[in-house]
Amino acid sequence: MNRLRQMSIFAHIVDAGSVSAAADKLNISKSVVSQHLKILEKELGMTLMKRTTRRQILTDVGERFYLKCKELNAIADSAWDMITDYQLEPQGRFRITAPNALMESLVIPVIAALMKKYPKLKPKLICDDQHLDLMAHDIDIAIRVGASHDSNLKQKRIGEFRDVLCGLTKKPININELPYIANIWQSEQIVHHFSNLEGETLLYTKETNCMANSFQSCLSLIRSGAGIGIIPDFYLAEMQPPLTNLMPDHCLPLNTVYTLTPFANHVPAIVKTCIHELETFLTRRLSGVAETKS
After folding, report:
1. Which of 35, 185, 224, 288 has the fewest C-beta atoms under 10 angstroms from its C-beta?
2. Pairing relation of β-strands 121-127 and 154-167?
3. What is the pTM of this model?
4. What residues form DSSP beta bridges with 231?
5. Where are the alpha helices (DSSP H) in the chain?
6. What number of other Cβ atoms are within 10 A of residue 106's Cβ?
């Protein structure tokens, strides 16, 4: 590493025209610059520059060596500028995963808007209702419902929503008599705790009749009249034709949405920007749901 440092300083001496000017440009002392040049010439075993108090002249080998050292500085400057550009304007590849229900309704609209704003983005979206290992799958952002217990990940709460037990029918029905359509993350034995405005609770238990490994499959089954199941309230509010909320006077507990990243410090610009936009978009959608209910 010292060798590269010495080569870089040598090129700066030539470009600046003197040791003093190079020291000023690099914001280090003149003696340090002179020492690096002396060590470099000693290790090379040859004189790179003939110097007096007023002039400096490159030797033939010094001129050839300088051209290579100048290339070294140009490469370093280019690398630095590239990294700076990444922080100034979100760009490049990044991977984001989310449950199926949140991918279509939350992530995709945000990513679509970001791609229009930042054409250099190269996102990869991974729909999965299972919790993927962020490091094993090289994931930059994960959207999760519920807090994570992994202390190696940085998480941020970006919003919350409620699930709604719904079905195709609009007639008064006994929900205990209808088949239950469950997602893969639910258990075979369904247990829901409902509450009303008076604080009264209602326990609903049901054995799963059908289980699918994606939200869209569950939704399609419910919309086809195969049974009942839970749908996020903000998703249900925009569905046409709408499904029926089977428990309009009761509600399920809040689900908190988090973003998780493996970046503890120096978070990439695209990750920070994406998380901010996800939070803003989710807040706006939930505000719309609240206004619809009121």
Report:
1. 224
2. unpaired
3. 0.74
4. 164
5. 2-16, 19-26, 30-44, 60-88, 100-102, 108-117, 215-223, 233-237, 269-293
6. 24
